[in-house]
Amino acid sequence: MRFYKQTHRFYCGVDLHARSMFVHVLDHEGQTLFDQDLPAGPDAFRAAVAPYRAGLVVGCECMFAWYWLADLCEDESIPFTLGHALYMKAIHGGKAKNDQIDAAKIAGLLRGGMFPMAYVYPRDMRETRDLLRRRTYFVRQRAQLIAHIQNTNSQYNLPPFDRKLSRHPDYSELAERFPHASTKLSIGADATLINHYHQTLAELETHLVRHAKVHDPATYHLLQSLPGIGKVLGLILLYEIHDIGRFPEDGNFLSYARLVRCDHESAGKKKGAGCRKIGNAHLKWAFSEAACLMLRALPAAKAWVGRQERKRGKKKALAILEAKIGRAVYQVWKKQQPFDAQKFLTH
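RESULT FIELD:
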């Protein structure tokens, strides 16, 4: 975890919400200069920090509404840092909690060099990343609808489908195999939504592939040199990672992608593991998908996983493969070299 260590004349902590923000400004000696609840907006924020612009740094917790504040600080040439929500919760937990206390503690953490930093994603790629995340949500919703059709078919002990439902050309005809009117209506509703998701996802993927080629086409194509990583997974990796240089070593990257377990130790004894929610959930999902797809695309990888299964079990074997793919992505991106299958399986 990285902490903000730079010194400034003034430290501004913002407890930000969708429609309001509590702003707390400290000087370098820790004296409170401003402490007020304001409407969330550029004009109110500019007016609040105007007397302290020279030597000011702004910090806020990473939550869903931080985009506009980061962009405003960039436009106004004000240093901005984003706080890691889970680490901040562990640091400034207390008996009492409200917006005023939270804003003061954010400013205090900035001043004391104990402000845990999250990554401020650049604005020019932010919209594409968010669209990719929305696409992933739609894919999961479609999968739930397909699973409901499959489960309903099993409930009534009907004959199995002639092909995998995920590859079915027309879902609207599936309702006819069910005998009851209410069940037909339920499956028909599923089929209508699935068809809409198919069309929407195709449009999104066409847009995303075109847009990715503008930002970093060389890395995008290098990522696809890994067996199992196609256009969509390549896009997810490209936009979730953005800059591989922000990870000094592959271990830092694996931790960020939730591919390694962090043990807690005290006096030489293990006390459990760290919070599994710390890290990028979208990268964790992407590497899980990449591992399953690699087993189909690379027979040597399937044989390697089979040997690991006999030693450690299937779950741990797949987890090891995910971590190996994570290291491979790091090296491919860092060195700007294509994937080497032989080296991948021998290390």
